[in-house]
Amino acid sequence: MIMNIEQTLLIIKPNSVLNNVIGEIYSRFERSGFRIIAAKMLFLNEYQVKSFYILHKGKYFFDDLISFMSSGPIIVSVLECKDAVKRNRELIGHTDPSLAITGTIRSDYSDNLTKNAVHGSDSIRSAYREIKFFFNKNEIFSRFIK
Questions:
Q1: pTM of the prediction?
Q2: 45-98: per-residue pLDDT in tens?
Q3: What are phi and psi of 137, to 5 degrees?
Q4: 83 in a structural domain
Q5: What are the DSSP calls for 54-111, one per residue?
Q6: Per the annotation, where are the binding residues?
Q7: Which residues span the domain enclosing 28?
Q8: How far is residue 31's CA from residue 70's CA, in Å, rounded to a whole number?
Q9: Per the annotation, where are the binding residues for ATP?
Q10: 64-84: b or e for each residue (b if 16 or more CB lie within 10 Å)?
Q11: For 105-144, what is each residue's pLDDT tens digit?
Q12: Sign of dihedral through CA atoms 104, 120, 94, 60?
């Protein structure tokens, strides 16, 4: 039996889709032991983006984030592995790419704080909420033996 298998959400943001680094981002996760168990490309409208990022309403970056995330297609994915939330955050790097460790996804592919290449769930509770926002249970296919 495999212990501590978690699921987390990854969003490949519009700048990463536009810059054609989808495969490179996915490769980094797969090489690190993650399994991509759901994925789809979406073009969110402003209402959908506001609904997803409601926890950030009122923060100084909210309006820029809404505008950016509704500016082009994104790819939403559910990733699975042992300690997925923590490991995802380590792989993507600090939210502010200027503070991200060299070699992390945000260090390598971000344009700035708003256009920081990817979104990753910051807790198990957030992962559950975020996955449910984008996916139905019948769209997620775990590949670990339970």
A1: 0.94
A2: 999 999 999 999 999 999 999 999 999 999 999 999 999 999 999 999 999 999
A3: -55, -35
A4: yes
A5: GGGTTSTTHHHHHHHHTSS-EEEEEEEEETHHHHHHHHH--SSGGGSPTTSHHHHH-S
A6: 13, 61, 89, 95, 106, 116
A7: 5-139
A8: 30
A9: 13, 61, 89, 95, 106, 116
A10: ebbebbbbeebbbbbbbbeeb
A11: 999 999 999 999 999 999 999 999 999 999 999 999 998 7
A12: positive
What tokens were used for 142? 């775990």
Query: In angstroms, what CA-CA distances link 31 with 36, 61, 91?
Result: 11, 33, 11
In a domain, 119, yes or no: yes
Place of tokens 């519009």: 14
**Residue 23 CB contacts under 8 Å (≥ 6 apart), including other chains:** none
Residue 146 lies in a domain: no
Interior angle at CA 98, CA 93 and CA 99, nearest 5: 50
Total structural domains within the chain = 1
Tens digits of residue pLDDT in 7-27? 999 999 999 999 999 999 999
Kindly give the interhelix angle for 84-92 and 124-134, rounded to the nearest 10 degrees: 90
Would you name the residues annotated as active-site residues? 119
For residue 145, tell me if it sits in a domain.
Answer: no
